[in-house]
Amino acid sequence: MILRRVQYEAAAHAVGPFLAALEDWRQRRRKRPARESPFAPPLESLRALKDMMMVHYLSGRYADGAVPVAWVTSGFPVEMLRTLGYHTVYPENHAAICGVQRIVPALSDAVEAQGYSRDLCSYVRSDLGSLDTGKSPVGRLPRPDLLACCTNICQTVLYWYRDLARRFDVPLVLVDTPFIYGEPAPHQTRYVVDQLEEAIVIAERVARRPLDREAFSETVRLSREGSDLWGQCLDTARNRPAPWTGVDGFFHLGPVVALRGTEACNAYYRTLLDELKDRVARGIGGLKGEERHRLLWDNLPVWYATREITTLLGSQGFNFVCTTYTNAWAEASSLIDPSDPMTSGARSYSQIMLNRDLPNKLRLLERLSREFGADGAVLHSDRSCKPYSIGQVDLKDRLARDLGIKTLLLEADHNDPRAWASELSANRIGAFMESFS
Amino acid sequence: MNAAAAIGVDVGSTTCKVVAIDGAGALVDRRVEPTDPRIERQVERLVGEVRAASGRDLPVGATGYGRKRVSGARALTEITCHARGAFARAGRAGTLVDMGGQDTKVIRIGPSGEVVDFAMNDKCAAGTGRFLEVILGRLQVPFEGLAELVAGASRPVPVSSTCTVFAESEVISLVASDEPLDGIVKGLHVALASRVAALARGVPAGDEILMSGGVALNGAMVASLREALSRAVRVLPDPQLTGAVGAALSVLPGPAPR
Question: Rounded to a whole number, what is the distance in Å from the CA of B157 to chain A's nearest CA?
């Protein structure tokens, strides 16, 4: 236990940062010819982002046995676990890394061979496949002591985490958030608060320590600050030209998803925000050339084809300036009140976009389009994420009718490249761009 | 006949179309052949023929899935070209249903001939000309007399499959069950029309639909579509050439003719 803890702390605070610095040094020395691309040079902060995520995953390899480990859904109220000293693993974030590395078909094949349907979410197939094959771009994930699942993003997570609970034979805490039509009713908030209290009891038992309520408030404060900072980073794209692209936003999202509620997360976003503001002041845009059109992206990224899509659009001066996906984490903890973490947390985590009705999503799309000055929208109809994709045909029609913006419904899957038709998609994107002239 | 002013090429999945138009957008020459896998050679030959007939070196616009393999041409997607072609042929804005070999598209055309919005079948050819071609081939039903055969059917035999391959097996079972051939063929048209109608959702009530693409030459399909959409369907002249005409219009010097 003690040795394991030493290894964990060393990985987090000495070996990890050293290896990250070494990798930075090697990258700087490597003289690679600049890749032909329509994008401005990458943000300097990207290096810090890579370092941070690398250290997070490296230390994770030594976390089991050293500190309590929880596997957590992206929408779970993580602040309680953070305060109890858990090392948190986000299988969705890990799955996205698998998607970017294009190893999902091999992982999915492994679970499909066991009878899991290809119609299941490709994040689920990626992570279960990673577990079964032992293949992971991050080496290995630590074994969980606790599974923490919140149904505010979808119902699939419930079955996914039940499967994990069976595999690991560890407790599963579930926070079931009623779907919100309009505003949350008091009894709905109460229902979620009760579950949070129950979850804390189990999380305390597994961590073998009580929750320090003062420290909990401080974590909540950090979490809220992190969401606010992330929101401010996103807001810099209201400027013309936007200082970065939608692609940047997808990748810089990592800390607010996986390290929300930590000072390190917030420090990172302060650095990023400074750099973005500096770019705005100097008139540097995310695209090398003129930003002719500004686009909104709806739904998860197409992780394996993000560069393909944005390069095609960027080469014609189209830039994604806002996305409903990255915006979700600017809103995730924005309503949490550190002086009343339970009730405000219940309300906040119940009100994330995917747990609210379609009129709310329409209002969000309209607000983002207006505030960011978007004249076009690409709605990714995601084969793997039905809760996010439902209603998109109506939303598309309303955006076109009410705001007069050009829209494109793009069929894909967020993590499985076998559902991606490159040539067909390029044709639709081409027609979409031509419709602006 | 006026002198040719521009050439349009539409390299589709089934047929390759090359047209020449005059300065007013009227068709002055045409070539239609089954698409050869060696697209470059086929297009070079057909464009050469049209150029030779005109006696001039004309600008070339290209569309269709093989558009990028047409050398020296301005390449535009078939969505834009069909909108431009249909706008010029119909002389007005509206909604176009284009049914080709592997694509079915519904395009909303704005008052200047621009694309306002479009929807297409995705990753599956079940709502396209290829669907009919495969299954009618299997049933050995000739294209000639198809409209009369369908019109004479007492009732459509429901074909439930939404996949070309499965529908083929289903149709074979229906034949084996002694279902009437004309009813099966009508059922196929109804199934196809309902898929297209789903794409065309949101079209303002009462609007006449414009139709283009090779499938528009099939009167039975036009009638089925009319029924599925509960509105008039107007087949554009030379419906198969709409995309090629649009491609030619895109390189026509001067303002676009209406």
Answer: 31
